[in-house]
Design goal:
Structural class: mainly alpha
Largest sheet: 3 strands, antiparallel
Strand order of the largest sheet: 1-2-3
Oligomer: single chain
Bound molecules: carboxymethyl coenzyme *A
Length: 430
Amino acid sequence: MDGKESTLNFDGKDVALPVKAGTIGPSVIDISKLYGQTGAFTYDPGFTSTASCESSITYIDGDEGILLYRGYPIEQLAEHGDFLETCYLLLYGELPTASQKADFDYRVTRHTMVHDQMNRFFLGFRRDAHPMAIMVAVTGALSAFYHDSTDISDPQQRMIASMRMIAKMPTLAAMAFKYSIGQPFVYPKNELDYASNFLRMCFAVPCEDYEVNPILSRALDRIFILHADHEQNASTSTVRLAGSSGANPFACISAGIACLWGPAHGGANEAALKMLEEIGTPDRVSEYVAKAKDKNDPFRLMGFGHRVYKNYDPRARIMQKTTHEVLNELGVKDDPLLEIAMELEQIALRDEYFIEKKLYPNIDFYSGITLKAMGFPTTMFTVLFALARTVGWIAQWKEMVEDPSQRIGRPRQLYIGAAERDYTPIAQRG
Ligand code: CMC
């Protein structure tokens, strides 16, 4: 389709707009010169028809329920790969060879410790602080502790900052958790793989040995793969926009974490679990489905619906399987929340409202049940999402910084405020 043009007739004048084609997926109409040609902006609140960049990292076909990282289907990566392999793939564009993988794992593992002075930084927070509040702050603070990797014009510093972020995020997330429950921080252990290390930092205590359950570690690793990247979603776009000004990567990822926290985005897993707890018993499901359909009630089924997926979220299918594996392993029989979730899913999938609006369960619908069974409190759910999404954010940030055509992001607006008027002295205002 590249080379084709589309024509817009504006104010009686024809304007030719170039059309650009991607490898797969919808083409885009290039409107970058439209303002110069017509004096008009385009208007697209929520960016439902706007591609904000070119990217070769992740592809989503929302109608078919397809998610590809660098061309590889999420199902294959989750089944056969591990999270650090996915990180390599997202960062470098190709799956690693055995020696590249060993080297990458080694480098990430050797960056897992955080500057010891960060311990004192944590002590400034109240014990009941939400761990996402802590994550926003400590991630931004990394730029103060690792100032030697904040020069974004240096490719080597960019890569070191990327490795540091992937490596240190589990350590920081575990510290946020430990701090909230009043337990001592547990240092990373280099002989463990990424997910096992994280589980140990969260659940080990100095007074006894901790053995990582390999089934749980594998399940967590898969959860990380499922969350690793998701194209130009709100938090990723936030990271790109923050980075477009030349801000350092630690500050940009902190901005992404802040955006992810919202219940319409990463906070949905916490909200979904709270909703299941509020429903309480399967017989109350239809009451909540009715509330979700009621136009006069702001209530929404959390974990349902997606801006892009108008089909079953492919991540939700894998997540559902992982939930069953984890509950089986932990011997959780007849989990009431799972029962409510399955009842809710069945009723909603048959309901005309949800069918017509193409509202299907998304990844957050099942992830909360799994994480809860593993021992994580609800406040940690979004933190785990942030941990896993860090690689996606950093890969997208790198791609943007390395794009020679990159400019600061600066959207315009349709101004609907007062036209120019004269200042009235206060005594004359009625
Ligand atoms: N329950 C009931 N109705 C819904 C829901 C829901 N969960 N989601 C959307 N709708 C309705 C909505 O009321 C609207 O109806 P109408 O056309 O009659 O006004 C229609 O479906 C379209 O909704 P929208 O808000 O215009 O869609 P959106 O693309 O702006 O929002 C969404 C997408 C994910 C924010 C939304 O579906 C939602 O709030 N879902 C619940 C929160 C959630 O689970 N979020 C996690 C997203 S997946 C993880 C991630 O990527 O962060």
